[in-house]
Design a protein that fits this description.
By secondary structure, the chain is of the alpha+beta class. The chain is built from 2 helices and 16 strands. The chain folds into 2 domains: 46 residues; 147 residues, lipopolysaccharide transport protein A fold, CATH 2.60.450.10. Helix content is 26%, strand content 42%. The longest helix has 51 residues. This is LPS export ABC transporter periplasmic protein LptC. It comes from Acetobacter cibinongensis.
Length: 246
């Protein structure tokens, strides 16, 4: 039987009433069950320091590379699209009896503005000269204004970027100007169009007939050689002026 607890004594749990011998045995068992921690060797510490040193450089470099790729991606996409357009143009080109059918030439002028020449067919005469049939030249001028010049025949000097047009030369400009002449010479690099033959120009201003002209697309200059005739359009009617055009 359990001995009665003396009066006025604090309560005591029997499971905590362990002897010193039992407590020592339990501590020895816990100590035997625990595993000692192995300290890293000097070589392991050196490897860890090397990894940390590389991580300090590799992680920022990787982040910089990702940011750079995001920044240059629009330019990469533009180049991919340009190459795709070039491949599509090449797919349209056919060779027939030494002539290129559906020929397309692209380039940029001295102001880094693009131009494009297309023709129904092109014949390679020399390494420099190409004879074109029904050529058309698309030119982007100052202020991103668009201009198209076409004719029945043409000669394209590739390295000099000169285009000589003959046979019903017609010039269209997005401001409403249209010019017709039998011949015209285009310096695609400088953006200059000239002719020493008669020309008829029509547009919102009226009608102009002259003996020759020079247009500088990038400088915004138009010169006409007389004698010529100018008919102006205004709200009060048409007025004809004759004289030397310049």
């Amino acid at each position: 039987m359990t001995e009665p607890t003396p009066p006025n004594s604090p309560p005591r749990r029997e499971d905590f009433a362990r002897s010193e011998e039992v407590t020592r045995q339990q501590r020895d068992q816990l100590a035997a069950a625990s595993y000692p921690r192995n300290l890293p060797s000097a070589s392991a510490l050196a490897r860890r320091r090397t990894v940390l040193r590389w991580a300090k450089w590799a992680l920022p470099a990787t982040a910089l590379l990702l940011l750079s790729s995001i920044a240059i991606w629009p330019e990469v996409d533009r180049l991919i699209n340009a190459n795709s357009a070039a491949l599509r143009d090449m797919a349209k080109v056919k060779i027939e009896s030494g002539n290129l059918l559906g020929a397309t030439y692209r380039g940029v002028d001295e102001h880094n503005r693009p131009f494009m020449i297309t023709a129904d067919s092109a014949h390679q005469v020399t390494s420099e000269r190409m004879d074109l049939r029904t050529p058309s030249a698309d030119v982007l001028s100052q202020g991103d204004n668009w201009m198209l010049v076409r004719s029945q025949k043409g000669v394209y000097m590739q390295h000099a970027n000169l285009l000589d047009l003959t046979g019903e030369v017609t010039l269209y400009r997005d401001d409403g100007l249209m010019m017709r002449s039998p011949v015209a010479d285009i310096d695609l690099k400088r953006g200059v169009i000239a002719s020493d033959s008669w020309v008829r120009a029509e547009g919102p201003f009226g009608v102009l007939d002259a003996k020759g002209y020079l247009l500088s697309q990038h400088d915004g200059v138009a010169q006409f050689r007389g004698p010529g005739r100018l008919i102006l359009n205004d709200d009060r009617g048409s007025h004809s002026q004759e004289g030397k055009a310049s």
